[in-house]
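Hey, quick one: can you model this chain's 3D structure?
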Amino acid sequence: MNLIINWPSCLVFTVALLIHPLAQAELSGSISGTTDYIRYGYSLSDGGPAIQANLDYEHTSGLFLGVSVSSIDYSDRNRGDSSRVEIAPYLGWNFELSHDWRLDLQWQRYLYDDRVFGQVVDYNMWSFTANYLDLMTARVSLSDNVLQQNHIATFFDVFGRYPVTDSIETSAGIGYSLSREALEYDYLYWNAGVTWFHPYGSLDFRYVQSKYFRELSIHSGSGLLSNLHEVHAKFVFTISFGF
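Sure thing. Here's the predicted structure for all 243 residues.
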């Protein structure tokens, strides 16, 4: 596998782990299986299943870092797609604004083991998140060069949760992407579901859907999303195990 990785970025995480003793921090991890890997309103696994893993380290100062890994499938052989793995290291800081509110600043780098749409598409994403208790999350995410298309893309997300019992939670979210110049479309996406929690894992059953918008007179962008179709009404099941 010819992995295309920005090694200096990865070294930042290694050095940070050595500097801060684990006694002052929390290390967690998970592995998941999902029937569809959907992010920002489109499928990164071509509507099929994906295996995912995450390792996260959080220091008592609020500094956190980690890496997420997922199988992917864009399925565009005409453009020479051969990438099958997405690796996303991240670094951030969270802090309490008040008893009810927490803020979160994060940088994330999306890396792919080979080409997507016939080209290298590694890119950065910056996010600002506000959390109200454990009930509501609002996030603004921005990439200055999403999928290396030389245009800015901005994503707005709101997500709400409501605990039914100590182990069952209902939740729903809605988001909007401003990405027409980079990816040819703006689009709306939403989801709703229920999650059952266990000390060593969780089960999530979720309804998801998205809708793309494009002015017919505008032909900007590279047309990449012609291969990333709208997510029509469907249910996604995810099982996770963690520590």
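One thing worth noting: The chain has a mean pLDDT of 86.
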